[in-house]
Amino acid sequence: MKKLFINITLLITLGIFFYGCDTPAPTELVIDNNTTTEDQVDVEIITKDTQDEFYSNGFDSTGVARRLHNFGSVIVVTGAKISHRKSTVRFSLAEAAFFNRKKPVMDRNGNVVGFHTVLPGVVKFNGRKAKVIPLKVRFKNGSVKVDTTLGPMYIVFSGRLNSVNPFGYNFRSNIIFKLIPAVGSARSFLIPTPEEITGKVTFTGHRADKSLKAVLRWNKSRGQKIEIVLGAVVKGKNISFPLYRLKTRDDGKLIVPSRLLNTIPFERFDKIIFSFVRRLEFNNGSGSNRLKVLSQSIHTIIIDIP
Questions:
Q1: Would you call 283 exposed, middle or buried from its count of C-beta atoms within 10 A (0-12, 13-18, 19+)?
Q2: In terms of Cα–Cα distance, which of 158, 152, 162, 166 is closest to 123?
């Protein structure tokens, strides 16, 4: 089980930088027969084919990572926890990537799937020096799956119980980002963090008669929206698929319609995953200097399928 925790930990967080050229299906509005207008939810289909392991790349709790190459640089800070059975593991993560928009990476059809990255200097989060690791991307080049490295990126990862780095994500607070360039003076700013999100999942109905529904509850906040990513783990394998991304009001409760759950091929999976995501987003600058900052609280719940 430790291996499962570690892999999902890395996928739901590092995955935000993996953006393939495959586009998710259009968003649709799902209204269940037994819901009111307040229970309406926007649903985006993420995985089109659960037999194709390309779609298992990057179960980040936002789903398959969003396209971030419209920005000159991206900073993501995450306070997360993963619950399975009676165990909950907490960790914190901070990432930064600086793109060279003059050096795009394209597929054979001329579509931009990313940009090569650069290292402008030393990066610190709350005074903790970030390590440098490769930023990899997977995309489809026609019918061929391609893995390539865009270049270096920065990361500070706490590990389980701060076993790797004592970096901590404090909720309803600020994280100090600092860049010390090779040439010039240092720059720093504060990244606000949201209120911690804690979810709970219960089920009503039965799979046999296709009446199964998931009742999701969480501590509501003043935010306008939260995201919930519904995924699953393949039987006998440590492979997870993000299936749907749901966006709904941050009002503390959502009933996942039975017609969504009934589309999941349960015979192929042995675990179902719900990731609750509360996020703050900031944009700054324009053109090649455009900065995207994401600050998020994530609670991922893994449930064994009986």
A1: exposed
A2: 152
- What is the spatial distance between Cα 151 and Cα 119, in angstroms, rounded to a whole number? 9
Domain count along the chain: 1
40-54 burial: b if 16+ Cβ within 10 Å, else e: ebebbbbbeebeeee
What DSSP character marks residue 222? S
Over residues 99-114, the pLDDT tens digits come to: 998 998 888 888 887 8
Signed CA dihedral, 40, 42, 48, 52: sign only: negative
pLDDT of residue 173 exceeding 80: yes
Helix (H) / strand (E) element for 192: namely: strand 187-192
| Whole-number Å distance between alpha carbons of 79 and 280 | 12
How far is Cα 210 from Cα 69, in angstroms, rounded to an integer?
41
Q: State the Cα torsion 160-169-96-182 to the nearest 10°.
A: -110
For 21-35, how does the pLDDT look when each residue is reduced to its tens digit (9 = 90+)?
344 444 444 544 444
What is the pTM for the complete model shown?
A: 0.84
Residue 279 and residue 158: Cα distance in Å, rounded?
A: 20
- The rounded distance, in Å, linking the Cα atoms of 205 and 306 is 14
Rounded distance, CA 215 to CA 46, Å? 21
CA distances from 188 to 48, 124, 177, 254 (A): 41, 9, 5, 39
Q: Could you tell me if 226 and 276 are in contact, meaning their C-beta atoms sit under 8 angstroms apart? A: yes
Q: Give the domain range for residue 9.
A: 2-304
Calculate the alpha carbon distances from 157 to 5, 111, 199, 258 in Å: 15, 32, 23, 37
Round to whole Å and give the CA distance between 24 and 47.
Answer: 7
Q: For the chain, what is the radius of gyration of the CA atoms?
A: 19
Residues β-bridged to residue 262? none
Please, how many CA atoms are within 13 Å of residue 263, restricted to the half-sphere of its CB? 13
